[in-house]
């Protein structure tokens, strides 16, 4: 792959962050990718164009232009002027909704080989988030190709390989290290960072009763939001014990996590890849990276059908970037949509994803990357970080807020975060009550409030 890239790059013309590939046609087929990846994707498209000519006995019909953009703003640019936009572009998965709506700007994918590749290569969560229903029919609108999820950074000089597999083991290590040493902390106290508990799944069946904005219409999404199941109740009872144990979990506070880890006051961090440098600076050669651990429901935690002895696996929001086809682009409307789908299939293939990881450190969306990609077998922290993120994607869901912007508002900005914190610390911060949510009835009431906020933006649900 690296030899291919090096050779192809000699044929690519660089203008700012725009790569124009030599071709006989003056009509441009524009592809937007992330700024950090433009060089790589220009190189592989150069190879694609060369392979096309060899296979078909004729030149590729368009001049391919690969442009590096800020993926987070690409959707807004398309909405402003879709006809002037690229044929193919990248966005975070949670931007899909605004481009689909009731009159999609992006084209549904119809290539059977591309759809088969999406189905075969991606975790269930990624496959689900790229689909939407229009007029009663479900369509696939994008192809995942870059992923992201939470992992555990930990001090391997104080936590053994066996202990790091369970929260109980990490708590034992913390107790051994000192009466005031915490097992773990989080990057922040919002619902994203506390998703390890809210999205926890049965370790045997990889299932959870939690639903967050599931459905094909807005009304269905709001209705299908649920966090009061027996497994969630049991997990939060466990979480209350965990966060109130002297050697358990700690919410984010005034002292930064890296300072706490450097001083040995916290042994691990539930974090994202973007915190790697900070944790590495704090722990140095003692840095370990693992999947988020499991925990076991005790008799004290058991609730309803979630019985004592049930093993739960910490969950995560596992997000992805996707490639879409602009349904308003003149190449697409002019009859060459299949050609664009062939390119998307190529760019999101596991082989190109592996090269993207090697050259750009982009985490693959491909579900078997951790086991199959040679670069992920390297004995480096960077390879281990990528491997553990891919593994965690199987235990997570993408953030489901793309359909409408107020779903994100309800989930993150209407008070659910505070209720989650209060439940875990068994307090009522609004009324300065230090003892709250200390019975099953009160806990269920608290989770019902969170559920109401997800649905309506209001604690009352009305």
Topology:
Layout: H1 2-9, E1 12-15, E2 18-21, E3 28-34, H2 38-56, E4 63-69, H3 71-80, E5 88-92, H4 96-100, H5 112-121, H6 124-129, E6 131-134, E7 137-140, E8 143-148, E9 151-155, H7 167-177, E10 184-186, H8 195-198, E11 201-202, H9 218-223, H10 230-244, E12 249-250, H11 257-262, E13 268-271, H12 276-283, E14 287-290, E15 294-296, E16 311-313, E17 316-317, E18 319-325, H13 330-347, H14 350-360, H15 369-372, H16 381-393, E19 396-397, H17 405-413, H18 416-425, H19 440-456
Parallel strand pairs: 3-4, 10-12, 10-13, 17-19
Antiparallel strand pairs: 1-2, 2-4, 5-18, 6-7, 8-18, 9-13, 9-14, 11-16, 15-16
Structural notes for this entry:
Belongs to the bacterial solute-binding protein 1 family. The N terminus is likely disordered. The protein has 2 domains: 224 residues, 3-Layer(aba) Sandwich (D-Maltodextrin-Binding Protein, domain 2); 211 residues, 3-Layer(aba) Sandwich (D-Maltodextrin-Binding Protein, domain 2). It is of the alpha+beta class. The strands form 6 sheets. Strands 12-10-13-9-14 form a 5-stranded mixed beta sheet. A 4-stranded mixed beta sheet has the order 1-2-4-3.
């Amino acid at each position: 792959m690296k030899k291919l890239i090096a050779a192809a790059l000699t044929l690519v013309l660089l203008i700012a962050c725009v790569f124009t590939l030599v071709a006989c046609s003056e009509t441009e087929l524009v592809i937007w990718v992330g700024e950090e990846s433009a060089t790589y994707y220009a190189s592989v498209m150069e190879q694609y164009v060369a392979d096309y000519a060899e296979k078909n006995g004729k030149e590729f019909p368009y001049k391919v232009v690969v442009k590096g953009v800020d993926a987070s703003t690409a959707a807004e640019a398309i909405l402003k002027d879709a006809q002037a936009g690229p044929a193919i572009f990248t966005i975070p998965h949670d931007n899909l909704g605004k481009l689909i709506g009731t009159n999609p700007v992006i084209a549904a994918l119809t290539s059977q080989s591309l759809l088969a590749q999406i189905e075969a290569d991606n975790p269930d969560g990624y496959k689900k988030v790229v689909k939407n229903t229009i007029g009663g029919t479900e369509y696939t609108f994008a192809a995942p190709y870059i992923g992201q999820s939470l992992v555990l950074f930990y001090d391997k000089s104080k936590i053994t390989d066996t202990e790091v597999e369970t929260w109980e083991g990490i708590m034992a290590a913390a107790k051994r290290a000192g009466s005031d040493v915490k097992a773990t902390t989080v990057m922040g106290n919002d619902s994203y960072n506390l998703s390890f508990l809210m999205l926890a799944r049965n370790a045997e069946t990889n299932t959870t009763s939690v639903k967050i904005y599931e459905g094909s219409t807005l009304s269905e999404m709001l209705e299908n939001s649920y966090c009061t199941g027996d497994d969630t109740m049991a997990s939060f009872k466990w979480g209350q014990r965990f966060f109130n144990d002297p050697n358990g979990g700690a919410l984010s506070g005034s002292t930064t996590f890296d300072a706490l880890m450097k001083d040995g006051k916290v042994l691990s961090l539930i974090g994202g890849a973007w915190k790697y440098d900070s944790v590495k600076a704090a722990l140095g050669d003692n840095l370990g990276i693992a999947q988020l651990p499991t925990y076991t429901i005790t008799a004290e935690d058991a609730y309803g059908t979630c019985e004592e002895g049930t093993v739960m696996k910490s969950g995560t929001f596992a997000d992805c970037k996707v490639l879409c086809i602009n349904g308003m682009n003149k190449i697409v409307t002019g009859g060459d949509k299949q050609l664009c789908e062939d390119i998307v299939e190529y760019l999101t293939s596991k082989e190109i994803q592996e090269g993207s990881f090697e050259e750009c450190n982009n985490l693959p969306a491909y579900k078997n990357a951790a086991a199959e990609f040679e670069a992920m077998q390297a004995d480096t922290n960077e390879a281990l970080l990528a491997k553990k993120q891919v593994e965690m994607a199987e235990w997570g869901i993408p953030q489901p807020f793309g359909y409408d912007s107020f779903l994100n508002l309800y989930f993150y900005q209407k008070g659910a975060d505070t209720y989650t914190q209060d439940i875990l610390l068994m307090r009522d911060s609004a009324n300065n009550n230090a003892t709250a949510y200390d019975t099953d009835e009160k806990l269920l009431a608290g989770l019902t409030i969170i559920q109401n906020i997800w649905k309506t933006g209001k604690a009352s649900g009305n």
